[in-house]
Each structure stands twice: as C-alpha cells, then as structure tokens.
C-alpha cells in the first residue's frame, strides 16, 4: 500500500490495491497507513542521526573515499493547508555523473534526503548520507547550491572543507533579473552586451571587475527600483563570492549546474505533492516525502526499511 501510495494519489492507490489484491481500501485508509509509516521512517532517521553525533568516530565511513563527492541542496514549494505555500527541503549526495550513452548521463551512487523540518534538519540528513559515502576520505568534496543563506549555513556548519559552488544556472538567472530595469531604460541591445560581458567575467571568477562593471551600469540608471536591483545582485555576489569561478572546475570535469538537485526536488516532492488540487499539512507532506525518498533510493533501501 505504501509503495503504491507514494506514487499515486490516495484514492487511486486505494483503487489499485482493491483491484490487484482484492483488499477493501479507501483513500483515507491509505493516507493513514502512509502517515504512520512515514512517521516511523522519520523516527528511524532521528535515531541514525543521533548515532552519528554520539559516536566517537562517525558511523559508516568507508576505508577509501570516492574521487569526488557532491553534496547538493534545494527547496520545493507545495500548497499548504495552514498557509498558502510551504517549502520542503531536498538534498542529494552522489559521486558525479557518468555517461551511459552519447546523449544520456546518470549519477553514480545517488541518495536523496528530504525534510519539511527546516534547513538544520536537512544539514544533518546530508551529513549522514555523505558520511556513509566516505565524506572524510573523499579526494574532492563539492557543495553546490543556489546561494540561499540557509543552504550556505549548511555548508559552513557541516561541510566547511568542501569546495563551495554557486550554481551557474541560478547565477545567470539572477543576473538577467538584475538587468531587467536596465533593459527597460536603455534597450535590449545594450543589455545583451552587458549581460554577456558580466557572464564571462563571472565564469572566470573576476568578481572585482564584475563589481566595477555593475557600478557603471547602475550609474546610468534613473529608476530607483532598477538601481536597487543592481545593488541586490551585488549583495548576492558578495555573499557567494567564494562559490563563483567555474572555468577551472569545468576543465576538471566538475559539474557546476543545478540539474541534478532540481531533478531531485521534482522527483522527491513535486511529482507526488504538487498535483492539481492538492494541499498538505506539514507533517503529512513530511511523512510521504520521506517514504518516497526511501523508495527512490533503490530496492535495497526500501527492503531494509520493512525488514527492521
């Protein structure tokens, strides 16, 4: 029932169970079962996290670490019954992409974690899974995020030795947004030149030159809101400047985009909790998302959950 329920809406899950297993079931009954089992999954993770913090040597470390270990984090927003929206946090630990065909890549040893309990809990979840994959022994550790302050705190608290990478996609998107007021006043041609120039500077990590360029652009603007947008973008760069500079990482084969974690957020939360007409209480969303993460982490993890 849980395996069907984490994939389909509750009423559809009840129908599938009735038709395939001849078990009389309603959507509310499926919901209660998933809630109870999801709470068990969260309680078990509590115990595992506590074991890591209490152990003199973190539990589960591998004798040899991977060449590279990626730790990625993001959020996913769903409709809430308590307020308009609420955010679930999603994390991904993996050992890099590998090519399986000329146009297809997959991640090596991906593990998903999720929580609706806030960024502090997400940091603990990420550390647990990173430790299991050989965090301390890894030759290279990359922490990649969109620059959100809460996610930076996770990196600085749990993965302070990791190389921090500000996601290249979010950087470019924020740059485009910062230049919207400039485009409205001075036109698309000048904006395109400014965008390409700044993008190239940021790709090579030339933060100082980028600031000088932004100051010149700001000085050409009359609108206070357009100037404020430039100022806000400069603040965004300043807060994440140690994660900017992609040319060397890219040359080493290190991925600098948020594709994997964006996909993770979609798989773990959005595809199940953001269907049309759905609204959630926080504990219900937390329960089903945790069960779904276990299911997505492979048959071995799923069987282990039911065997304990």
Summary, kept brief:
The protein contains 14 helices and 7 strands.
How would you summarize the topology of this molecule?
Blueprint: H1 2-5, H2 10-21, H3 27-54, E1 68-79, E2 85-94, E3 97-101, E4 104-107, E5 111-115, H4 119-132, E6 140-145, H5 149-158, E7 163-166, H6 168-178, H7 180-186, H8 188-203, H9 207-219, H10 224-239, H11 247-251, H12 259-273, H13 282-296, H14 299-307
Helix pairs in contact: 2-3, 3-13, 4-5, 6-8, 6-10, 7-8, 8-9, 9-10, 12-13
Strand order within the widest beta sheet = 5-2-1-6-7
Quaternary structure of the protein: single chain
Helical/strand content category: alpha/beta
Contiguous helical run count: 14
| Low-pLDDT ranges | none
Shape, please? Answer: globular
Give the tally of β-strands. Answer: 7
What is the residue-mean pLDDT, rounded to a whole number?
93
The secondary-structure element order is HHHEEEEEHEHEHHHHHHHHH
Radius of gyration from CA coordinates: 22 Å
What count of domains describes the coordinates?
3
Strand content: 5-15%
Portion of residues in helices? 55-70%
Distance between the termini: 18 Å
Main pleated-sheet profile? 5 strands, mixed
Tell me what the structure shows:
With about 300 residues, the protein is of the alpha/beta class. It has 3 domains: about 55 residues; about 140 residues, no CATH class; about 70 residues, no CATH class. The chain is built from 14 helices and 7 strands. The protein has a 5-stranded mixed beta sheet with strand order 5-2-1-6-7, sandwiched between helices. The chain has a two-stranded antiparallel ribbon with strand order 3-4. A hairpin with a 5-residue loop joins strand 1 and strand 2. The mean pLDDT is about 95.
């Amino acid at each position: 029932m849980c395996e069907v329920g984490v994939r389909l809406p509750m009423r559809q899950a009840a129908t599938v169970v009735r038709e395939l297993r001849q078990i009389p079931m309603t959507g509310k009954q499926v919901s209660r079962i998933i809630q109870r089992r999801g709470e068990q999954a969260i309680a078990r993770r509590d115990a595992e996290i506590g074991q890591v913090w209490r152990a003199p040597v973190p539990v589960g470390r591998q004798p040899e670490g991977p060449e590279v270990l990626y730790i990625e984090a993001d959020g996913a927003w769903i409709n809430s019954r308590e307020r308009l929206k609420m955010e679930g946090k999603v994390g991904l630990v993996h050992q890099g992409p590998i090519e399986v065909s000329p146009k297809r890549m997959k991640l090596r040893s991906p593990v998903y974690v999720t929580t609706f309990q806030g960024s502090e809990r997400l940091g603990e979840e990420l550390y647990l899974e990173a430790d299991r994959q050989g965090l301390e022994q890894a030759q290279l550790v990359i922490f990649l995020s969109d620059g959100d302050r809460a996610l930076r705190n996770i990196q600085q608290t749990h993965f302070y030795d990791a190389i921090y990478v500000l996601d290249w996609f979010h950087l470019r998107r924020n740059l485009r947004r910062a230049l919207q007021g400039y485009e409205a006043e001075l036109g698309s041609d000048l904006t395109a030149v400014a965008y390409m120039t700044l993008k190239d500077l940021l790709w090579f990590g030339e933060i100082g030159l980028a600031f000088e360029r932004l100051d010149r652009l700001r000085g050409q603007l009359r609108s206070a809101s357009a100037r404020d947008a430039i100022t806000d973008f400069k603040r965004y760069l300043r807060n994440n400047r140690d994660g900017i500079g992609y040319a060397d990482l890219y040359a080493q084969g290190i991925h600098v985009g948020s594709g994997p974690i964006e996909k993770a957020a979609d798989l773990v939360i959005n595809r199940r909790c953001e269907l049309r007409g759905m609204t959630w209480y926080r504990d219900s969303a937390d329960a089903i998302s945790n069960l779904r993460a276990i299911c997505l982490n492979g048959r071995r993890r799923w069987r282990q959950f039911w065997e304990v």
